[in-house]
Amino acid sequence: MTWNFDILPDFVFNGLSLGAIYGTVALSLVLIFKATTLINFATGELAMIGAFMVYVLHMEQGLWLWLSILIAMIISAGLGALIERTLTRPFDPADHLPVVLITLGLFLIFNALAGDIWNYQVRLLSNPFGKFPSWVPGLGGDRFVMVLGSRLKYQSIGIWLTLALALFLLGLILNRTKMGLAFRAVSSNVESARLVGVHTGRTLGFGWAIASAFGTLGAVLVAPQLGGVNPNMMATILIYALAGAALGGLDSLGGAVIGGILIGLIQAVLVMWLGVVVFGQAYMSILQLAAAFVLILIVLLFRPSGLFGSRRVERV
Amino acid sequence: MSDDVFDEVGLVAKNLHASYGAVEVLRGLDFEVAQGKVSVILGANGAGKTTTLRAICNMCNSSGDVSLGGVDISRLGTAEIVRKGVAHVPQGRGTFPELSVTDNLLVGAYVRKDKEINDDVDRWFEIFPVLAERREQLAGSLSGGEQQMLAVSRALMSRPKLLLLDEPSLGLAPLIIEDLFTRFTNLNKETGLTMLVVEQNANLALDMADVGYVIESGEITLSGPADQLKSDPAVQEAYLGA
Amino acid sequence: MSSPLVVVAKGGAEHKRWQYVQYLYLAAFVLLVPVVLQPFEIGKMNRALVLSVAILAVNLVVGFNGMLALGHSAFMGVGAFVTASLVQDENWDFWMALPVVVLVGFALGILVGLPALRVKGLYLALITIAQATVFPTLVNIDELGIAKRTGGPNGKGVSEEVIAPSYFEWLPGVDGARGGSAYRYWCIILILGITLMLVTNYIRSRPGRAVLAIRDNEAGAAVYGVNLPVVKTVNFAISAGLGSLAGLMWCLDKGFVAGQDFTFLLAVDLIIGLVIGGVGTLQGSLLGGLFVVWVNDLTKRISIPLGLYTLNGDGPLAKAIFGLILILFTFFAPGGIVSLAKSVQNKLIKVVPLRPDGTPAEDIDSFDPGMESTRAQSAMKLAIAGPVLLVIGWLLMNVNNLIVGCVAFGLRFSILVTAPVAMLVGSNELKALLAGNRPESIKGQASMARLLGGLGFLFVILYGLWLFITKYS
Fold first, then answer.
1. What is the pTM of this model?
2. Is residue B10 part of a domain?
3. What is the per-residue pLDDT across B121-136, written as a single tens digit (0 to 9) for each?
4. ipTM for this prediction
5. CB pair distance less than 8 Å for C323 and A100
6. Do A292 and C130 touch (CB under 8 A)?
7. What domain range is B137 assigned to?
8. Chain B nearest-CA residue for A186
9. How far apart are CA C99 and CA C145, in angstroms?
10. What topology is assigned to C34-302+309-339 in CATH?
11. How many C-alpha atoms does A249 have within 13 Å on its Cβ side?
């Protein structure tokens, strides 16, 4: 056993940036769950399609990266709203099976279409946060900065700032706009929302739109960590995000972010650092995903509503 | 036809039917609420009172003609009916538990586009000071009576022409019920708000109402001016415990 | 045909005859598979039947208990790997491994089900989807001898071949070229049959009724004293045990197991089979397995050139087609093939239940005696249509085009729908003949229908016999 504390900050930084990505995707899940108590199992594939849109716009068409991301997010939002309108609205939301089946069908379709168009090879996508921009004093052009004796990558900082900005904007939309108010009302009580004149369908479509945009953002941020984009890129990310959402409480937006970050930390610090580095158990690296699974079990066993969830969870 | 005459029509429901699956709950109700007046629908559990209100708002599988101020609203969706001036306080309050008290009121004004929304919020805080004290609290943490106050004021935030109240006395202490009904009466007297109240508490409801209807198994069995109904032996026996 | 062709009383002689027709079909199907199909086709049929058992397992949870389980691929995987290890490393017999495999699956089901089923909502779906994604990674762990037992990334083969013992060589198809796969087919049929019987009894038992009650009205069931978490968890564990059993059958059939075979995609296949077969019905589970394997096989042949791009079904798009079918069924036929078949059947034959006093609840309108002419006309058309469609289908089979091929396939199989009616008409005809009252019943079109129906009946029987005799060598 070697308590190698020197490299611990490395793992913490890595965990925090992975966690921020999980948190972003978890937000995408929770936005829809909060309003409908449904889990959109196509979240990951929708996000993957968004990442491929960025790939096409930026790598193939040569558009400015950030503009490509923005356009991809907007198209994803439209796609999300379209799916809500055409595929899920006709069904009674209290009956989970049909909508889950629809999202599973979409999962297959999106994955297969992407596989058919772009095949299953990993395709390089530029890192939005590769090197510090030139205006950062002393660091311009560097990939990392030394903090606590470890490398803090610009990529990690960029992911955190992006998540913070996205959360700030989401907060503004939900708390300061009429549509946001309507969305919170629908999430809280659909019948009453209808009774104050809210068009519940349109509002849910709006929720799907934001959720899809968030998913795309998460996929774009995770791509550099995976070496690029490929149709199966979100398969494991979705599980980590589900674990994060469950940990935070499936109906808590803040909980989703915190839960996601905690999952990232558990993965990097508990499993990788403690398991692999300290205890020298190499197979622990295979168990990263299993750890997320076990964590969901533990959460359900001891605190089914998660850390920040509310009344929605009913014991039976 | 002048606007005044037009307005006096209020709510008119003709041959209202509703069903849940194969079960027919309403079997052709005819009733009306005159402009500026209060009508009350009495009935036992399962008679179809709540369904009547839901049918007016097109929230269940219903057929028949419903018009408000002479305008047919029976084909509109719930959200559009609200825009025509109907406010509905559902059974069990129907507040938004995860929203703050202020947000509950604001969302009540969702269909309005004018600039006086914040003034109205303040006005309701004046009328119900207890709500003002809890304006940042989540609605789910309020007591039953406070929730009912919030539900009513939220409904009125839309500045409706017609207020539908579904058993406002349910689950409240007698003192609070009396206070609430006094407020309802004052609302009607002061602002001329048209109201349709569904109740089991016949005494209080008939005191406040101008016209009353009694429904049993989805059919109107008795109707007439409220004071007349109050002295009707059948009503006395069934609802007033006389 | 708006009104049904025949209206028969439940439990009556004609209803019984109709049921015999169905049993006859089933028996013919089961019997013909190992003698008519090529060995590789029998292999596919085996795979389909294995999936049917797995779908039946999913059905126990999704269809009968109303909970969403999306991770049975993992239970199958566990069953398959435990079997492979016991048979290969410990020299066990497959049949000895069976109880162990089922128990392991049951225990895992308790482990997963207990936390997830204490709370309402989609939590079981959430945990099972994670389980399905995690499982393939677990078989690669080197520690604890796991990789040694599972074969790690290379998978594990079972060298012991499943060969029919000499006293089972009389089974149709078992001797000769297709012996191996045919014998495995019979093993699978045996397990499937027993499983179906057990599940049917389970559903009708006291705990089974509690499971159904929870699906129909959870609060109501609780009020009547059903212990929700316990019943749900035990039901889920039984389903997991059944899933493991399907894994054992997989191993028995393929003789090789690998982690990549038991991914989330397999779990999705099971759900697709369940939905398309028919949620909550036993027949649906069987049909679902056949659908998943054979339709997948069919889509692989699609190759449509569209300019520079070729729409190629033999690749990722096969999954997209499945996804599309899943969505279409969810929208337009939520009851699956079973409910579609039922609605077709109801057009032909309506079974009227009996009142408590034993009289039918509606007027009975059978073929016997004497038919009104419109009904007779319909019967006749159907009796003619069957063989005609069959012949057209036959002729079209020679056209080398995928779409025409599919149409031909469909036409040939339409005989399966028309033949039962022909058989019903024909059996009446035979009965009349034997009773000696036939000459009187020959009146216009009714007698034509009888005659043609009788011929159709004979044709189907003879065709089946011919297939059996020529292929069974």
1. 0.83
2. yes
3. 888 888 888 888 888 8
4. 0.86
5. no
6. yes
7. 98-159
8. B96
9. 23
10. ABC transporter involved in vitamin B12 uptake, BtuC (1.10.3470)
11. 17
